[in-house]
């Protein structure tokens, strides 16, 4: 809404600042943080009163986790409140990419909220049907991708782009919708699997979102896109304030999620933010680069896939426990060691992903 003030810059010179995406990105970040920081304690208290015993702890998990019993979950509500309010204030609400990302974020957040609700009320680490959850996620993701495909100009709306090579395009036709929906759903569930330790998921999410925010800004600016030889996608620059809102709200959440966590993100936050990450990558035509930038999430997801597949084939386990962050806990790493080392990996992978912008 505040972004609209830029239209009156000719009458009031001060309003010209609202035309700049960089300014609105910074403002969205600050506003997102302040919103979560100010209202976070009330949200935590309200969730604690309503949830009673809090999020159930896996019985087969590391012994150190049992001391976390009683910690409320659904902390994603805190993040989403800061993100959504900040986006509504600072993003251009006439931009279809913004609405596509919002559709995924809110839709996946609602799925995660229902899953968290079932876990808390049943006091079980099992939510509702995995097949039904995936079906709903694919429906929402497909609708969001359809919006993007209908809006994207330049003749590559249904094409897959490749890092390091600008000229190479693979036109998937209508199969692209299924592929892009898979990217969004895969990103959401990979982040969901990563969310197992205090602060483990939120910082890598902010790192990945920061990288994608930069890509959005560059891909949406024809001058930068031509200089870097990346595909220009008109309008994606408006996703930068969206990313700024996530970073700010994420920092606010981290204030309360730092060990020992006062609240857990839950599926409400992990599915919403993971889906958002995938949706931004699809919008900017950087689907494959997301696998590098979000490489930590890919590793976490692969560890579960490998563990389950190998156990079904041989009856033995590859890892002491999956996802892989629990494997290192079982090896004797402290929780803080796992979290900080995984943050470092996430940062390095994001840097490698960003390097693809210039290596053409």
From TrEMBL:
Cofactor list: Mg(2+)
Enzyme Commission identifier(s): 2.7.8.13
Principal subcellular localization: membrane
Membrane topology: Multi-pass membrane protein
Record pathway: Cell wall biogenesis; peptidoglycan biosynthesis
UniProt cross-references to InterPro entries, sorted A to Z: Glycosyl_transferase_4, PNAcMuramoyl-5peptid_Trfase, PNAcMuramoyl-5peptid_Trfase_CS
Residues engaged in binding Mg(2+): 192, 267
GO biological process: cell division; cell wall organization; peptidoglycan biosynthetic process; regulation of cell shape
Gene Ontology molecular function terms on file: metal ion binding; phospho-N-acetylmuramoyl-pentapeptide-transferase activity; UDP-N-acetylmuramoyl-L-alanyl-D-glutamyl-meso-2,6-diaminopimelyl-D-alanyl-D-alanine:undecaprenyl-phosphate transferase activity
Subcellular location field: Cell membrane; Membrane
Transmembrane feature ranges: 27-49, 69-90, 96-114, 134-152, 172-193, 200-219, 239-256, 263-282, 288-311, 338-357
One Pfam family hit: MraY_sig1
GO cellular component: plasma membrane
Catalysed reaction equations from the record: UDP-N-acetyl-alpha-D-muramoyl-L-alanyl-gamma-D-glutamyl-meso-2,6-diaminopimeloyl-D-alanyl-D-alanine + di-trans,octa-cis-undecaprenyl phosphate = di-trans,octa-cis-undecaprenyl diphospho-N-acetyl-alpha-D-muramoyl-L-alanyl-D-glutamyl-meso-2,6-diaminopimeloyl-D-alanyl-D-alanine + UMP
Keywords: Cell cycle, Cell division, Cell membrane, Cell shape, Cell wall biogenesis/degradation, Magnesium, Membrane, Metal-binding, Peptidoglycan synthesis, Transferase, Transmembrane, Transmembrane helix
Enzyme class: transferase
Keyword Cell wall biogenesis/degradation among UniProt keywords: yes
Family: Belongs to the glycosyltransferase 4 family. MraY subfamily.
HAMAP family per the UniProt record, alphabetical: MraY
Function: Catalyzes the initial step of the lipid cycle reactions in the biosynthesis of the cell wall peptidoglycan: transfers peptidoglycan precursor phospho-MurNAc-pentapeptide from UDP-MurNAc-pentapeptide onto the lipid carrier undecaprenyl phosphate, yielding undecaprenyl-pyrophosphoryl-MurNAc-pentapeptide, known as lipid I.
Protein name stated in the entry: Phospho-N-acetylmuramoyl-pentapeptide-transferase
Record organism: Fulvimarina endophytica
Name of the encoding gene: mraY
